[in-house]
Structure formats: structure tokens, C-alpha cells
Amino acid sequence: MRCAATVEEGRSALSETEVDVAIVDFRLPDGSGADLIRWAVSNNRAQSVYCMTGNASGRAATEVLEAGGIEVLEKPIDVDRLAELIPTQDLVEASDTHYLNEDLESWRTCYARDIVGDDERLVEALETVRNITDTDCTVLLTGESGTGKEMVARALHGSSTRATGPFVALNCAAIPDTMVEAELFGHVRGAFTGAHHSRGGRVVAASGGTLFLDEIGDMPLQAQAKLLRVLQDRTIMPVGADMPVSIDIRVVAATNQDLEAMIAASRFRADLYYRLSVIPIELPPLRERGDDVIKLARVLLGEANARNQRQVTGIDKSAERALLSFDWPGNVRELAHLIERTVLLKGSGVITASDLRLRSTGALPRGQRPFKSTVNLDLRSTIDQVERQLIDEALDRTGGNRTEAASLLGVNRTTLVEKIRKHNASL
Predict the structure, then answer these.
(1) What are the residues facing 212 on neighbouring strands?
(2) Whole-angstrom distance, CA of residue 229 vs CA of residue 247
(3) How far is CA 422 from CA 389, 414, 417, in A?
(4) pLDDT tens digits along 80-136
(5) 202 to each of 13, 71, 212, 251, how far by Cα in Å?
(6) pLDDT at 196
(7) Where are the alpha helices (DSSP H) in 132-258?
(8) Angle, to 10 degrees, between the axis of helix 149-158 and the axis of helix 120-131?
């Protein structure tokens, strides 16, 4: 039996054939596992249905038994206990199919199917995520821009006991410093000019679920102090409020910056860093993942074909060599944009190296300058020229998407927009 990540997928899987044993997670993204159990029992799609949950007492047990489930099993599942409940032959068949979801590949199929690759460091990171799904511990995801930190955060949320709650993402680099606190913690009416109504922030919106704080290194120090209180006391103080508000969230933070270096430079709080990095998970850059580049490119090719009604049939050996030799400063995000653009322009046939139009990132010969100014040796003009070239390169790689280009360059989107406006005015 294949693993199903949602109630709807479970119904679809059970519709294909009647099974002897089904083990259902109580918390599914689109409803309760009890709903799937009730459907399976009423439609005679399974001889025996068991349910697994992080807490095998109280509401979960009542709902499961009322739905027709035989037993509620607490995660992680005690296989010996399961052996007592399920006939031996059925247990062998169930374990053969990995339906217990104890196997990493089964977990990936259910919750991280979009995270493609077999690199050892990537697999280790995903194994760590799988091992903490039944906890509420705070997680810090590190890695270069475009390595898939938000995808990993979503996989963690979707497979956790909070999966039925909201996943709320906030890019700390995209919000003006003066608005970070109000955006995070909300505000009461009259807290500042223009605050005509009270408003709940992202923390309140994530209640019962997961709050994903991307680019945490760009959070102002004052807001860092208030976030520390959230992690310590599980309360927030909306801007202008007199009383704290209790909250129930899991925090997952991400950054492409060296937070320890920022601590040394007094730009990030050490106490917040230690609170965030209860479980630190580092995602490897694409250039260090070997053949994962080719596997990803093939998957992205199929998706781009379907999305754009194109018939590009494959990637030839010359294109594969070009993909493997490229440095990928924008990582998976850059690869996705490249494949999308190539599929749109190619339309059909097989992608070759010339179709990719990748610029070499190899080392320059000894003594050769990496940049030659087209103006006189004027420092300000030369810096402006280099900056303009880098912006053009980032926009080209991201298909003109300014948000993605800003991420590639390591600056705020507002900063990038201002620089584009400045350079356009100088033309």
C-alpha cells in the first residue's frame, strides 16, 4: 500500500484495492484521520484500521473508536505492541510496504516529495526533520539562498502534530524596520499614527500551527528582544497593549547569514540564537550535491512542460555536463528559473548546452583580471558599473523577478528597487 499524505489521497489509495491493515495518522493536513477511518470502515476498504497520534488519550482515542478504528497507537509506534494487535501475516505485509511511515523514503513520499535529491547531507537533514515531527522544539534552518529552507519548513509542519494548524511565513528582510514589531505581534487601535483598528500579527495568525521566520538575521535588535520573550514565555505584547497575550506556536527560523559572526559584531542577540538553534539544520548548496543537479533538472523539466504546455523531451549529455560544472550561486531556485526559461524558449526537442546559455564560473587564468572597467579608473563610477552588472545578471537569472533577484544578491527587495531606479535615472 502506498503512503498517503492527506485524507483525499488516503481515500484514493484505498479505492484502488481493499487492504488487510491500514494505519492512519490522526492529524492530516486536510482533516482528521478519524474521517478517513470512518470512510474506510463504512466502505469496507480495510479489514483492520489503526490510528497513530502523538497523544493516545482523550479526544483522539474517542474519535477513532467512534469512527470504527480498532486501536490508537502513540507515536513513535511500538512495533512489539503492534505485533500483539495485528496477525503475523498482516504485520509482515504491512511492514513490507513501509506503511508505518518509519522509513525515511516513505516519509519523504508523504511530506517532502518536492525535495529531490540523494545527497548525504540533504538526506541527513531530512532525517533530522522526520525525527522531530512529534515535538514542538524550535528549529533553525541555515544555508545559502535558494537551497530550499522554506520547503523543508513546510515539510516539517505538514508532518507534525500541528499539521491541521496554519503555516504562517514572514520574510524579515522584506519588512521595514519600523514595522517589524507590529507585523509580528500586532497592534491595538491608536498605537501609532494610522492604527485606526486593532490588528493581530503573524504570531497570533500562526496560533496552533507553525510560524516560519525567513531571513531572521535581518530582524532588528529591538524586535529580537521581543521574539526572545515569545520563545521563553509563549506570550506576546501587541504594540500599544497593556496586557500580554498567550500564544501556542512552533517557531522555525531560517537564514543564509552567519549568525555567530553577527553575534560577534553585536548585530544579533546571542541569547536569541541559542533559543532558535535548539535543532540546527544546515542545507547543502546545490554545487556540492553532485548528481542531484541532474535529478532536479529532470523533475523541473517535467513540471515546466506541464505548466507551459511544452514538449521538451529531455536533457542531452552536453547539457548535463554544463549543469554539473556550473557553480549555482542561486542554488535550486536559480536552477528552477533556468529550466523554466529554457523550456519556454525551446518549446520541444532535447535541451543542449547551448540552449542553457550558462556562463562559465570556472577560475580565471593566473594574472587575468575578473573585471575590467570600461570607464577611467574612477572608483565611484567603477563601483556603479559593477553594481549595475550584478543587478542585470540577477534579474536575468530570475527571469526579471525582483524579489528573487534581491534574494540572490543578498539585499532587501526595497533596496534593489531603489538601486534599479537610481541606475535607470543615470542612463
Answers:
(1) 169, 252
(2) 11
(3) 14, 12, 9
(4) 666 666 654 444 444 343 333 346 888 888 888 889 999 999 999 999 999 999 899
(5) 36, 38, 10, 11
(6) 62
(7) 149-158, 180-185, 202-205, 221-233
(8) 30
* CA-closest candidate to residue 312, choices 280, 355, 275: 355
Sign of CA dihedral 278, 217, 411, 360: negative
CA contacts within 13 A on the Cβ side of 406: 17
Q: Which residues pair with 210 in a beta bridge?
A: 167, 250
Strands 235-236 and 245-246: antiparallel
Domains of the chain: 7-102 (3.40.50.2300), 117-282 (3.40.50.300), 287-356 (1.10.8.60), 379-426 (1.10.10.60)
Residue 165: count of CB within 10 angstroms of its CB: 19
Residue 121, CB half-sphere, CA atoms under 13 Å: how many?
Answer: 14
Q: Is 397 helix (H, G, I), strand (E, B) or coil?
A: helix
Give the pLDDT confidence score for residue 94 in this predicted structure: 41
pLDDT of residue 366: 35
Answer whether 196's CB lies under 8 Å from 286's CB.
no
Helix (H, G, I), strand (E, B) or coil at 327: coil
Nearest to 133 by CA among 110, 173, 160: 160
Measured CA to CA, the distance from residue 398 to residue 415 in angstroms comes to 17
Would you give the DSSP letter of residue 189? T
Cα 65 to Cα 198: distance, rounded to the nearest angstrom: 43
For residues 372 and 11, which has the higher predicted lDDT (pLDDT)? 11
Rounded-to-integer distance, Cα 364 and Cα 189, Å: 59
What is the distance between the alpha carbons of residues 247 and 312, in angstroms, rounded to a whole number?
Answer: 49
Place of cell 526579471: 400
pTM score: 0.64
pLDDT of 147-195, one tens digit each?
999 999 999 999 998 999 999 999 998 888 878 888 888 767 766 666 6
CA-to-CA separations, 389 to 198, 382, 386, 395, 413, in angstroms, rounded:
45, 11, 5, 10, 17
Cell of 324: 554539473
Q: What is the DSSP string of 112-137?
A: -TT-----HHHHHHHHHHHHTTTS--
How far apart are the C-alpha atoms of 102 and 333, rounded to whole Å?
30
* Cβ atoms of residues 208 and 162 within 8 Å: yes
Kindly write down the DSSP assignment for every residue of 377-390, as one continuous string: S-HHHHHHHHHHHH
Give the pLDDT score at 185. Answer: 82
Among candidate residues 155, 406, 180, 103, the one with its CA nearest the CA of residue 281: 155
